């Protein structure tokens, strides 16, 4: 499994939140926190310790307006893109720095610098440790300015105060990074892989497919193909074969299917005689791929054939829909197709191209919020 600090970190975590039905509360929490970041300096304008002077009060109002705008993407019907989230980190750090520096009382500004600890937690959780260079650089400059101002009256307090904020920020970021690694280890141990074939199991298939869907954007003009493969006559083969033959057949056929697909294709073994495949195509016609998969099964030394049900759908409409609901509906449609293929005698392919998806209709009606 790729590290959570890798390039797909943002969308993998999004998929986890979606699977746990936590995307809505997380979005709401981020939006509320962002608004509070802008409201506090405006509320302190009436205080002598708050923003004062020619630039202080106008900057407080500007920060409040910017924070209100930044909260909007977290309140819409879809999860913000990775690019929007990265911009959120940079702008939030600049707003936090402004809040701290415009305070007339530098100790109040130093207290406000704890915002960088919260922002560091968001950054490491959603974008990995490498992106901490942005809020930490801005935070270091902010602490240097505040430290120099406080040192004019008490150097010891300045040093101790700055060190306290640095300690808190580093601790929160480190705790977030460790938590992510523990989640990654737990996911591996919980079983993303099928113990018989070494392919993905259903949980692993769902999580990676959700991440794949979430990583796309509205400009993507490709198609997602989801397939259910059932081995015809596998139950009979297992019943009349010697002990262990059925296991060897599953392992061998799984290996052949794996050789027939591309490296980034999702391939799972979910039942004795069932495999799942998810592939991104440039056209809605999956026939070249299904031909390779059928041939991979037929040429294995077990005299088995495969019935395959396939659903293809454009990727770009899936961006706003709940990934887990999309996966469930596509697999249900593909399972219906494979049932038709088996009823027709087996060793056949049934394909549904670009069907209307109920989950997309729900998302367009505003009923599903990125959950």
What keywords describe this structure?
371 residues; alpha+beta; Alpha-Beta Plaits; 2 domains; 5-stranded mixed sheet; 11% strand
Report on this model:
By secondary structure, the protein is α+β, with helices and mostly antiparallel strands. It has two domains: 9-190, no CATH class; 202-364, Reverse transcriptase/Diguanylate cyclase domain (Alpha-Beta Plaits, 2-Layer Sandwich), CATH 3.30.70. The protein is built from 14 helices and five strands. It has helices spanning 9-19, 23-43, 53-71, 82-101, 106-112, 115-127, 133-151, 155-191, 202-214, 234-240, 245-260, 287-298, 323-343, 358-364; strands spanning 223-232, 266-271, 274-281, 305-314, 349-353. The protein has a five-stranded mixed β-sheet, sandwiched between helices. The two termini are 24 Å apart. The model is unreliable at 1-8 and 366-371 (pLDDT under 50).
The outline comes out as elongated
Distance between the termini: 24 Å
Strand order, main sheet: write it out.
2-3-1-4-5
Instruction: Name the poorly predicted regions.
Output: 1-8, 366-371
Tell me the major beta sheet: 5 strands, mixed
Series of H and E elements: HHHHHHHHHEHHEEHEHEH
Task: State the helicity in percent bands.
Answer: 55-70%
Oligomer: single chain
Strand content: 5-15%
Nearest-integer average pLDDT: 85
Question: Can you count the helices?
Answer: 14
Alpha-beta content class: alpha+beta
How many structural domains in the coordinates? 2
Gyration radius, rounded: 27 Å
Count of individual beta strands: 5
């Amino acid at each position: 499994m790729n590290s959570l600090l890798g390039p797909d970190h943002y969308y993998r975590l999004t998929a986890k939140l979606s699977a746990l039905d936590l995307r809505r509360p997380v979005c709401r929490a981020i939006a509320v926190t962002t608004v509070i970041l802008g409201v506090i300096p405006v509320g302190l304008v009436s205080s002598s310790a708050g923003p004062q002077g020619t630039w202080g009060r106008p900057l407080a109002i500007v920060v409040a307006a910017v924070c209100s705008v930044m909260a909007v993407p977290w309140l819409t019907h879809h999860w913000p893109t990775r690019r929007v989230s990265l911009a959120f980190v940079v702008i939030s750090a600049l707003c936090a720095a402004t809040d701290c520096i415009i305070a007339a009382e530098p100790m109040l500004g130093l207290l406000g610098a704890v915002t960088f600890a919260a922002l560091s937690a968001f950054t490491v959780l959603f974008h990995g440790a490498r992106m901490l260079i942005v809020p930490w650089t801005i935070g270091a400059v902010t602490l240097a300015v505040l430290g120099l101002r406080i040192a004019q009256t008490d150097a010891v307090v300045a040093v101790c105060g700055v060190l306290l904020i640095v300690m808190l920020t580093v601790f929160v970021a480190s705790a977030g990074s460790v938590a992510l690694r523990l989640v990654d280890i737990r996911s591996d141990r919980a079983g993303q892989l099928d113990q018989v074939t070494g392919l993905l199991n259903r949980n692993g298939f769902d999580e990676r497919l959700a991440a794949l869907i979430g990583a796309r954007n509205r400009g993507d003009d490709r198609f997602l193909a989801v397939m259910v493969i059932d081995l015809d006559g596998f139950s009979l083969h297992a019943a009349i074969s010697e002990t262990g033959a059925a296991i060897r057949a599953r392992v061998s056929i799984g290996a052949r299917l794996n050789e027939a697909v591309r490296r980034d294709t999702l391939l799972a073994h979910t039942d004795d005689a069932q495999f799942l495949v998810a592939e991104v195509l440039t056209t809605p016609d999956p026939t070249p791929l299904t031909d390779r998969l059928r041939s991979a099964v037929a040429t294995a030394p077990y005299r088995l054939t495969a019935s395959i049900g396939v659903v293809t759908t454009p990727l770009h409409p899936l961006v706003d829909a709940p990934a887990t609901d999309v996966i469930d509906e596509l697999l249900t449609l593909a399972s219906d197709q494979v049932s038709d293929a088996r009823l027709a005698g087996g060793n056949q392919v049934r394909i549904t191209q670009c069907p209307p998806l109920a989950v997309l209709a729900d998302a367009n009606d505003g009923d599903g919020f990125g959950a």
